[in-house]
Write a structure and sequence with these properties.
Layout lengths: L2 H9 L8 E3 L7 E2 L8 E11 L10 H18 L3 E11 L4 H17 L3 E9 L3 E11 L14 E5 L4 H8 L5 H12 L5 H7 L5 E5 L3 H12 L2 E5 L7 H6 L5 H7 L5 E6 L12 E8 L3 E6 L2 E5 L9
Parallel strand pairs: 4-5, 9-12
Antiparallel strand pairs: 1-2, 3-6, 4-6, 7-10, 7-11, 8-10, 9-11, 12-13
Helix pairs in contact: 2-3, 2-6, 4-5
Bound molecules: adenosine-5'-diphosphate and magnesium ion.
The site of adenosine-5'-diphosphate has 13 residues, from helix 1, strand 4 and strand 5.
Amino acid sequence: MDEFEIIRRWFSTSTNPDWLTLGIGDDAALLSGNLCSSGQDFVLATDTLIAGRHFADHAEPSAIGWKSLAVNLSDLAAMGATPRAFLLALTLPEATPEWLDGFAEGLHELAALHDVALVGGDTTRGPLSITITALGIRDNNTRMRRDGARPGDAVWVSGTLGDAALALRLGSAAPKGLRKGLRNRLDRPVPRVAEGMALAGQANAAIDISDGLAADLGHILTASGVGAQIDSAALPASAEFDAMCPPADRQTHQLSGGDDYELCVCLPASVTPPSAECGWTRIGEIVAEPGLRLQSDDRIIELEEYGYRHFD
Ligand code: ADP
Ligand code: MG
């Protein structure tokens, strides 16, 4: 099976949005200018997933397809963008139809949920690696970036923290009834696209939590030249997490576990996020003095940035 057969069978999509002048099949895709209006900006993000590092070699192919796109949509969500299109650069050790069936199913499932079009890519042979580049749009008066947090802002997070880290840690040791929910948080993270878009007009700063809350909120603090105090007791946890996480590991998983793909957003104190199925929790506030402090049992602990780093 050659690359053209792979593209035709698994990656040629039937979506034909009016802004797509030329999709898969030529040297490059052509998107017409009416993809966005004059009051909007383009938002571009790319992320790579590598076998053995971002997912286990034996991971379920549909979960790999889903997650490859999810991590990119999560980046767009953190910018308050509406996703529109993506490119897929796929490197495969071999063309196994069963693997490609699963991968494409997970990928196209999430793409359909958000109405994003696969408009091109690249297919090569080599160690398994997936790079997706996603394109979105947002109003050009949107402030949402890492550098806009102000003293007095409230810090909010979507959903729950620590589930993916706990799933990774427990592996098959978790009781079966609880395992699936946690495992899904690791394998099929749900990018908070609608939640990010809903806050685009109001947030002063935002980031998606991929390396753990402490590290990612730390990026906002550094970029904005401010500090924050967060309340350990306020950190949102799922029922599965509460049931299965050893108390001594709670904070580590919630603050530096990684792979949460929730949003961390700084909002003016007067603003409450619109209700969302995943929920929003106010976990603390932005202060002028730099540094990240955690209030825990009447003590205040100074936190180093301690998320996952690729080159330590
Ligand atoms: P080129 O030889 O110019 O690099 P390719 O043969 O790699 O072109 O790709 C042919 C067409 O198929 C291009 O339009 C490209 O965008 C698309 N394509 C290649 N791989 C993928 C993929 N994995 N998913 C979607 N489109 C792809
Ligand atoms: Mg090519």
